Amino acid sequence: MLEIERRVGERPVTSPQPPQLQVTEQSPREIYDALNVWAFDTFDLVREEPTRISVPTARALWLDESVDAHPDVFMPPAGSREFAHTHEDGSMHLMLDSDGERCVIDAGWGELHPYHHRGVREILVYAPRNADELETVKLIVQASYDHVMKSAGGTR
Question: What is the rounded average pLDDT of the residues 81-92?
Fold first, then answer.
């Protein structure tokens, strides 16, 4: 179960329609860079790929094809292995189970994708504004990776 502290401050402004990006309270460049270094260096069998669903500047976390994970844990389109991507504003979309989604939303760290009701199961996680918030976002990304690996039975 994901356990995170409540986010401090007002909810940032996000675009109401896709592409869903964060308009206010964006990450400082050093925090954005630290998030990406951590995300792309931490997980076994994850590599950076061009996103298949987001804006061209988004950086996708792509699970290696050798992992037999359930297709529902990935973002569209069909055949994608993208389970998360970072945006230049510091926010990110990722996949979580419904309990994880609820936890992130209840703690004020994110919101559902505008097309969630249409089956787009991504959640937008707000940009970390400092090193402490970066640690919270890392926990959320870890939960997303764990969700993907659980669908594969944790095996390679």
Answer: 98
| 142 touches 100 (CB < 8 A) | no
Q: Which amino acid is at 106?
A: D
Buried b (16+ CB within 10 A) or exposed e, 95-106: bbbeebbebbee
pLDDT at 153: 82
Mean pLDDT over 22-35 rounds to: 98
Tokens 């944790």: give the residue: 154
Q: Return the closest-CA partner of residue 122 out of 75, 82, 66.
A: 75
Which tokens go with 67?
């992992």
CB 109 within 8 A of CB 22: no
Question: For residue 152, is pLDDT > 60?
Answer: yes
Say whether pLDDT at 71 is over 70.
Answer: yes
The CATH T-level fold of domain 29-151 is Aspartate Aminotransferase, domain 1 (3.90.1150)
Q: Is residue 41 classed as helix, strand or coil in its secondary structure?
A: helix
Q: How far is CA 14 from CA 20, 22, 91, 130, 144, in A?
A: 7, 4, 10, 19, 21
Question: What are the residue ranges spanned by the domains of the chain?
Answer: 29-151
Q: Report the distance separating Cα 87 and Cα 57, nearest Å.
A: 7
> φ and ψ at 92, to 5 degrees?
-155, 155
